[in-house]
Design brief:
about 375 residues; alpha+beta; seven-stranded mixed β-sheet; six-stranded antiparallel β-sheet; 7 helices; about 25% helix; globular
Length: about 375
């Protein structure tokens, strides 16, 4: 019959059989939590929406390099150095802790080279990079798990020996590396443990151990009394390529910009060959009307251009297994800036003036003027 229902019934039966035969290869949440790039936004009433499974076992943090930090931050970048689920679990747990402490959290999972993540022009107090050194995750959320996670805490700034590093105040923090060794399983009284609750429990346990080794007993606190360097305009965007990953943005009184890195020595070309990993960004600079300086200083190749009334500078240096990259602008009228702070005469202005005395590149006449104003 032309209007027979048999084909429709047969299709429904085949669909039902398919639903029965097709079984999910990965249970929901087995691959770890999803971490999206950008500013972390959690509901203020209940930021820890996923309940953490109570765990038994051991978690120990060891400071491999550096010392303690004060935890007085405003903006923090949480960066993933790999795509392991343990790294993503620690990233999300750290983001939760920072968010609940009132900080702005910029999540930066490791991007694909074909889809580089545009950086956010937001001055940052700290960059916390997370990497999984080893992990043994069971095939069920109730199994024994082991993981070794490294946290690297840095202050984004121009590196030592950089041509413009003398324009910055001394660093607040030497780089810190903390290794957390975790071996855990659900506690005996744990109920309804699934993948999301297990990942939440594991990530938060690891992060709390790290923060306990990094911070004083007061813990995380949003900075309130630190003066902000006001430039009146956003930080200029840096050049972006698939090979170059910008880790953080800084804004001091006399200089502001970005620090980043190209990992590896070579990249593939469209023709099937290979070239130096720094070649794509150098080609982008040439297209963008950047002019290279005649001579390198301290191993740094340097370019500059005038854009929107600002002199922008770019410098890169071969560091053996990749390239360190920087972009920055310099304050054009330092004397006028000092005059405005002296005229203001309030506590924030005096803090800026006191900090300015720590800048090595401050000309001596201006240094004497600042010292006289602070007497």
């Amino acid at each position: 019959m032309r209007n027979s229902l048999l084909p429709l019934i047969a299709a429904v039966v085949c669909f039902a059989i398919g639903l029965v035969l097709i079984r999910p290869i990965v249970d929901r949440g087995q691959g770890g939590p999803e971490v999206n790039a950008g500013i972390l936004r959690l509901p203020k009433r209940d930021p820890l929406r996923t309940i953490a499974a109570p765990l038994a076992g051991s978690t120990a943090a060891t400071v491999e390099r550096g010392g303690r930090d004060d935890g007085l931050w405003r903006v923090v970048v949480v960066a993933g150095e790999d795509r392991e689920p343990t790294t993503r679990a620690a990233m999300l747990a750290l983001g939760e802790s920072l968010f609940t402490a009132g900080m702005v959290v910029v999540m930066d999972p490791l991007p694909a080279a074909s889809e580089p993540t545009p950086p956010l022009p937001m001055p940052t107090d700290r960059v916390i990079s997370i990497a999984t050194r080893s992990a043994e995750i069971g095939d069920s959320p109730t199994a024994d798990w082991q993981a070794s996670i490294a946290f690297t805490i840095t202050e984004p700034r121009l590196p030592a020996g950089h041509p413009a590093e003398v324009l910055l105040a001394p660093p607040e923090l030497a780089p810190v590396v903390i290794l957390v060794e975790h071996a855990g399983r659900p506690a005996a009284d744990a109920t309804a443990v699934d993948w999301p609750t297990r990942w939440a429990g594991t990530g938060r346990t690891i992060v709390q151990a790290m923060l306990g080794s990094l911070l004083p007993p007061s813990g995380l606190q949003r900075a309130k009394d630190q003066p902000l360097a006001d430039w009146g305009t956003p930080v200029p965007f840096p050049p972006v390529t698939g090979e170059l990953r910008w880790s953080g943005c800084f804004q001091h009184d006399l200089a502001r910009g970005w620090v980043g890195r190209i990992a590896g020595r070579t990249v593939a070309t469209k023709s099937g060959g290979s070239e130096a990993a720094a070649a794509p960004v150098i080609g982008l600079l040439r297209k963008g009307a950047w002019e290279e300086a005649a001579a390198a200083e301290g191993g740094w190749r340097q370019w500059s251009r005038l854009r929107d009334g600002q002199r922008q500078l770019f410098a890169l240096r071969d560091d053996g297994d990749g390239w360190t990259c920087t972009v920055w602008t310099e304050r054009p009228d330092v004397a006028g800036l000092i005059d405005r702070w002296i005229a203001a005469g309030d506590a924030p202005a005096r803090q800026h003036l006191q900090q300015l005395l720590t800048v090595r590149a401050l000309p001596e006449p201006l240094r004497l003027r600042v010292e006289q104003a602070l007497k």
